[in-house]
Amino acid sequence: MKGLKVFAGFVAVAAAFAVGFTWTDIRAGNKPSFTKLAPKPADAPALTPTQVFSSEYRAIQGLYWRDANPNQLLYAGLDGMLSALGDPHTQFFEPYMNEEFTRSTSGQTSFGGIGARLSPDPLGVKVIQVFREGPAHVAGIKSGDIITSVDGHVVAGETSDEIIGRIKGKIGSIVKLRTFRGGRDTLNFNIPRGRIIPPSADGNMIEGTNIGYLLVTAFEQPTPEQFFRAIQDLERNKPQGLVIDLRDNGGGLLASAVEMLSRYAEFKTVVTMKGKSGRTETVRTPGGLIHEFKYPTVILVNERSASAAEIFAGVMRDYKLATLIGEHTYGKASVQNIIPLRNGTSAKMTIAHYGLPSGTAIARKVDEDGAYLSGGIKPDVEVKLSTDPNVALGDLKTDNQLQKAVEVIRQKNPKAQ
């Protein structure tokens, strides 16, 4: 009986579709025509997938009730093809997305602002980092300052996004800031907004210590130069340790990671890549760029440290050049290339999988719901980030992972304070 009900339901659905397909003919008093839905003859020559796609592309344009944008159909088709590969790291970029991705990896994204990294604070926002030679640096803003007022508006209780939105503005316009410094001094600044291109690598001395802090947010084209310049600036303060922060760093260019690693080790294997052909290719650091580090290095990582960030952290750990602290990394063991396509489009495609020098497997594994099961790089010292809502990454007073990094450096070097 149940089977009859299911069959009856199927017949009803089929009838509804049939009425939908033939309604125009019925209203006109004509016999319904199904010629456009008729299958192709059985003896029709077999077509290649490319011929089928081209044929159906023309059919859709010809049969749809209004003119279809050919580029939209083409882009949707290309996007669908790449999505069908089932690789989350392979994707199609339309012209606008392609341009934005290129701008991002080349470090060209800019806005009007003061040139500082800010984090939430009960009184407003706290300055975590001041960009070299930016408007805030020129005006005398320092790391640790708390911005309490923007253009005369007290910002306590607002979100950091809201406050940053007030600080950003037209290049050349003036923003008036009131800051609280050292728990006692109130300072006022009139700062002309400048064109800010946030560096992907920049550093400062951790307040109250002789330990350097170097934040790397991405591996872009300018990153290696910014990275080494930041190290040189920090070394003018004679640091007794260095914390490299790769938390939330989604990666970027393998070439940038290799160049940065060449400051620590020359002619060393970085990754061994295996592509479709089955052949392996070994990527090594070049020679002639080595730098003498006279202090211990600690690297902070978390689950959002991926791709080139994992390669940098993993290689540093494999060669015993740094201690990893934090939480496991993402587990992205694949390499992508940008393949230029026509009309300003491109495809970011996985071309190989890689292994670290130690041979440790880091490929991410997830369950049916996409939740993490295993993979990534396990840190030497595991420390989960505090769930306190006032935690600000890079702030020694609230960032418990950074606190642990400083503690480890002090254990390694008695001169570190």
Would you summarize the structure shown here?
This protein has 3 domains: 38 residues; 86 residues, PDZ domain (Pdz3 Domain, Roll); 212 residues, 2-enoyl-CoA Hydratase, Chain A, domain 1 (Alpha-Beta Complex), CATH 3.90.226.
What does this protein look like?
The protein is an alpha+beta fold and 417 residues long. The chain has three domains: 1-38; 111-196, PDZ domain (Pdz3 Domain); 201-412, 2-enoyl-CoA Hydratase, Chain A, domain 1 (Alpha-Beta Complex). It is built from ten helices and 21 strands. It has helices at residues 2-27, 49-63, 70-83, 95-105, 135-139, 160-167, 223-235, 254-261, 308-318, 400-412; strands at 91-93, 111-113, 116-121, 124-130, 146-150, 153-154, 174-181, 185-192, 194-196, 201-205, 212-216, 242-245, 269-275, 280-284, 297-301, 323-326, 334-340, 346-355, 365-366, 372-374, 381-382. The strands form five sheets. Strands 3, 4, 5, 6, 7 and 8 form a six-stranded antiparallel β-sheet that branches. A hairpin with a 3-residue loop joins β7 (174-181) and β8. α7 packs parallel to α8 and α8 (254-261) packs parallel to α9 (308-318). 32% of the residues are buried.
Shape assignment = globular
User: What name does CATH use for the topology of the largest domain?
Assistant: 2-enoyl-CoA Hydratase, Chain A, domain 1
The number of distinct helices, counting runs of at least 4 residues, comes to 10
Whole-number mean pLDDT? 86
Q: Tell me the distance between the termini.
A: 82 Å
What is the CATH class designation of the largest domain?
Answer: Alpha Beta
CATH level-two architecture of the largest domain? Alpha-Beta Complex
Cα-atom radius of gyration: 29 Å
